[in-house]
Amino acid sequence: MPEELIDVIGNWIENFGATLGAIGETRLIAGEDDFAHILVILGNGNQSLGNVIQGLVEREDVNAWLGNWLQAGGNASISATEYELLKGRLDETTGIYNKIYGDVTQSVGAFLAALGRLDDQPKRVIGNVIQSLGAALGAIGSLYVLNNEELKGQQLQAVGGWLQSIGTALQAIGATRRYLYGEGVDDEVETEQGEENND
User: Of the residues 8, 15, 76, 109, which has the fewest C-beta atoms closer than 10 A?
Assistant: First the structure.
């Protein structure tokens, strides 16, 4: 199987996970819900798997490679933390701190991945930046929860989750277009459109 296709698969798995996680975070606004926690666990687990797949085939840029592995670690940390919280084996304060570290790691990783794709993958750059902002919002939301502003914190976490879903969707679309049509396809399309507008 071509590495470019493996990268596409990894991107769509990451997007599937981000969307599951966003649904779970949204459900949590309505109150504690075991199914919502399960969605967050599965969502972050799938995001981590998608990042691992991308990291394994990333050979073009060290920033993108490192960014994928940082995101994988951050997502895995959140997934494991949510699982331990659901089982009652972790106190809530420690769990919140773990989630903050996980979200910050994701945010840094997504930003690094964006830096690594500046030259020829604009859709994936935009997606990574949106994802980075979403993960940062998740961390800020956890800080609000830590300071006993639970509703506001959960709302920020849900918004952050949906930003990650949107960002990973853009990345997956960019990776798919790159696989189907070749490197720099976004640049070429924009150039062609610009030339048509000038005519």
Answer: 76
- In whole angstroms, what is the distance from residue 82 CA to residue 34 CA? 10
The predicted structure's pLDDT at residue 43: 97
Find the farthest-apart pair of alpha carbons in the chain and give their distance in angstroms, rounded: 66
Which residues touch 126 (CB under 8 Å, ≥6 apart)?
A: 167, 170
User: By mean pLDDT, which of 36-40, 167-171, 192-196 is the weakest?
Assistant: 192-196
Residue 46 is which amino acid? N
In contact, 53 and 3? CB cutoff 8 Å: no
User: What distance, in Å, lies between the first and last C-alpha atoms of the chain?
Assistant: 42
- Give the integer Cα–Cα distance in Å for 167 and 150: 25
Joined together, the tokens standing for residue 102 give: 């996980």
Distance CA 8, CA 173 (A): 8
pLDDT in tens, 18-29: 999 999 999 999
CA-to-CA distance for 82 and 76, rounded, in angstroms? 10
Burial zone of 163 (CB within 10 Å; 0-12 exposed, 13-18 middle, 19+ buried): buried
- Summarize pLDDT for 41-76 with one digit per residue, the tens: 999 999 999 999 999 999 889 999 999 999 999 999
Nearest to 162 by CA among 124, 125, 123, 133: 133
pLDDT value at 191 more than 50? no
* Alpha-carbon gap, residue 197 to 146, rounded angstroms: 52
